[in-house]
Every structure is written in structure tokens, then in C-alpha cells.
Amino acid sequence: MLLGDWGTGKTRQWMDAIRSVQPAPSHAYVSVFGLSSTSDLRRRIAEECVFALKLPEGGKVGDAVASLGGKLRVTQVLRLLPVLPYLGRLDALASELAFAAVQEKVICIDDIERAPASLPTAEILGTANYLKEERKCRVVLISNREKLKDEGQSELGLYLEKVVDEWVELAPTVEEAARIAFPPRASKGQEALQRRVRALRVTNIRVIKQLVRMTDEIEPLVANLHAHVLEEAIAALALFGVSHLCARADVPPFDYLIELQAGIGRRHLKRVENGEQKSPEEATEELWEETLHQYGYSHTSDLDREIGRSVKRGFIDRDALVREGERLAQQVGAAERREAHERILHQFFDTIDADGATLLRELEVATRAAIHDLLPGSMQMACSLFVECGRTEIAERLGQEFIAANQDRPEIFEQSSAAYWGRYEGPFAEAMRQEVAKRVTVPSIQEALDRIRPLEGWHPDDVRLVATATTGQLEDVLRATRGNAFRRRALTLLDLARIANGDPEAKRVADETKALLQRWSGESPIAAARLRHYLAKRPRTDRY
């Protein structure tokens, strides 16, 4: 009997053993998967034994039947006549008679753990024992003992010694599984996959071979991209492959991996360090996070997610994979250019033996190469250095090139302000002040008012803008307001003098707002009732 986990090569061992015997013995292979009763099992054994019979003119019965292809014509029926004496009519009675004729064969019964409840393990073992004892057959049983149902486990333990003369537990090591699954000469992608399956301690040969086939399909798609793309794709392929194809308790499930975001990992370990009690779910996630930490996987990128989907659906969307690969290659390239720029800056300031003029030339080249990747702060540092070293013309050119090259990145200008760049000197700071000034848009009174949150915070520029409002603007803003927004705006305006630390213009706006509300409340008793709490000596400022 061959025992072992799925994918450890049990069926392959049987097939290799049969092929190694010359001449090959009369044998039959039967998988229990799909059978529903002992009668089905006996019939399948009989069928396989009959199909394995050798014909007088050479070949086997099964080969002769298969050659007909299921489309019988008159001439084909004539070809079938020599086969009929060996086949008979395998109906209910004939199949039992055929089973009774099974003698001195080599029979393999596979997938015992996949048998349904209607075909108990005890009956499979009983059939095997009958063939061994009464029909002088050699029987090989194959099963994944760990996947047997509880009753099957008990029956196997009870009858194992009686039925089985010898049993072998197939438990290949990670290295043995890799040697079997990978070709002798591995490609770069296959070498990367070997490292990853070893890191995950994968011993399922069938799964590794499937991942090898997917690697062979992925590798040419990203061959012309940055080498990191292939490495990341294979890392995701191995992880999602283990998660989906051979689930393990220490590897996160597919749904967890597909949504994994940066910064959420190892949170349960921090709770433990703080002495907090773990729930069973947290303990499980802690195990997953430790696996991911050891594997070097922090979050699922868009490329990883596409690889995961490919594993789940069983085929690769080539266009989507190439698109995500190209996007990742651009991100990696940008990061490398920024690192090169930063490295030369550090070398300039942190070493004394290198030639300074050479480093400045290298810095100019690195800055220009990363002109679309750097942030304004890094550019300011480089340009200030050029000015300090008497290379002002280089700083001027780089500043103009930076602004021209980053028109498609408006956020780097929107995040800056002219006041911020006023702290710096030099051609780059001046160019940035001019560019930021061109992009400044003055908000409306209403927009500035809505950004002032007395209980949360505010920007002084918004307070100064609201303090310029006329009575007409105040009336327009309040009349156009409904619901909670009216309460928030009215109370903010009434409190503007305090917010602005007694600024005269802010006090004027607060007084004009109060006068405006008083005028409206005098229009009718209903209006007075609605506005009464705004005109109290101390309005409810806790309801902004």
C-alpha cells in the first residue's frame, strides 16, 4: 500500500514500477473517484482487466476498441468481430461473471480517500483482500490517509495489518520534490520558482509542476521588462499557488491574500507584545502573518493580484499581466533613479576621498535622469549644492527642466505654497515660487468658510478671506444654505472674532452676521423662534 499526501508522486510510483518490468505484467488501474458502490468497483476492475487482454494478432482489447473512436460503420463492425469474444456483454450479470474471471493480475486501486460514503473503506479493503487471497492477484492500494473521513481512518487502522502485507509512506522532502518537478536545466523564471517553493516548503510535486507550466507562460511575457517584475510575479505565483492549490494552515487563504494591503501585517504580534489577549481568529492570522514575514511578502500589488486571479481561474490573461508588469517596471525604475540620485548626494557629503568635480558631474546626470521622479525637496537640495559650488547655470537649467517635465504631476505643485518656497533662495526656489503662484486659485467666501472648523482647526488664509466678506456676500451665503450646514456656517461667522484673535475685520463680520440674523428674526414670530438660539448671549458653539 502506498500512503502519502496529495501530489507526492504515489500514482507516478505505480506507473514507473509497471513500466520498469519487462515484459509488462497483465495489470489494471482503477480510481475509486467517481464510483458509488462496491458493484461499480468490481465492474471497473473487470473492465480494466478485459481491456488489458492481449489479442492473438497483437495489441490489446482496449486499444482495438479505442481505435474505433465511437463511430461504428459496417466496415468498422467487421474490425470489431475479433474483439467481441473477449468483451462479452458487460451488463450486470456479465460484469459479475467477468469479475469472477479476474485471476493472477496486478491491480492498482487508487484514490481511496475520494470514495463516497456509499463505498466504505472497509468494502474497498475487503475487495482487495478477496482478490489477493481467492484470485491470487497482487493488489496495490493508494491513498492519502490524512484525507480519509473519520470512519475511513478507523477502518483503515482496523484492517490494515490483515489486508496489507507491506506499506510505504511517501513523504518527499522539499529538495526531493524540487528535483522531481523541475527540469534539469532551469530558466531564470524556474530558478526563481525553485527558491520560492523551497521558502514555502512545498512538497506537492503535482502543484509544483503546475506552477512550472505557468512560469513558462509568464516568463516570455515579461522578459523585456525590469528583472524585478519576473521576481515579483514568481513570488506571487508560488504564494497564491500554495494558498489555492494545496491549502495549508500556516499559509493565508486566497481571499485574505488578494486583499492584503501594506501596513496591516504583524498587528497581532504587536498586541501580544503589549500583553493583550488573542482570540482564536487573531492567533490564526498571527500564524499567517509570520509566514508572510518570513517569506518577505508585505502586501499584494496590482501585479500580484493579477497573478492570483490567474492561479484561481487556471489561465493567464496575457494583456492584463503585461499591463501590470509594465506599470510595475516603471515604478521600480523610478525608485532606482531616485536611489541613484540620493546615493551620489550622500557620497558627496559623507566622503572626502572621491573627486568632488566628478561627483558633481555624476549628480547632474543622475538628477536629469530622475527629473520626472524626484520631489521638489530633493531638487532644491541638489540645486542649492550646484549654486554653492559655483554651478548656478546648471541649477537654473535643472529647475526649468524639472518644472517642464512635471506638468503631468500637478500634485507636487499643489502640495507646495509660495510662502513655503519663500524660505529658500536660489534659482530653483524662485522658479518654484513662480510656478506655484501661477497655479494658485482663490477660493470663494463659502469654500473658505466651510474649511474653518472651530473644534478641529483652520488655516489662517481662510479666516483672512472670510473676514473680507461684505454684508451682501454674508446674506447670499446664509440664504443659500440648508440644514446642518446653516448652523455650522452661522455659528462660525458669529465666532469669527474669537477665531481670529480679535482681528477688527473678523469682528466686523461677526457683528454684521448678528445684525443680519436680528433683521431676519424681526420679519415674523416664526422667524424669531427659528433664529432665537443664534441670538442668545452665548450661542451653542458646541454644535458646529
Written overview of the protein:
The structure is a single chain. The chain has four domains: 2-170, 3-Layer(aba) Sandwich (Rossmann fold), CATH 3.40.50; 176-260 and 300-327, no CATH class; 351-439, no CATH class; 445-543, no CATH class. Helices cover 61% and strands 4% of the residues. It has 30 helices and five strands. It has a five-stranded parallel beta sheet, sandwiched between helices.
The helicity comes to 55-70%
| Alpha-carbon distance between the two ends | 78 Å
Structural class: mainly alpha
Fraction of residues in β-strands: under 5%
Which geometry do the CA atoms define? elongated
- Round the Cα radius of gyration to an integer and report it: 39 Å
CATH class of the largest domain: Alpha Beta
Strand order of the largest sheet: 2-3-4-1-5
Can you count the beta strands? 5
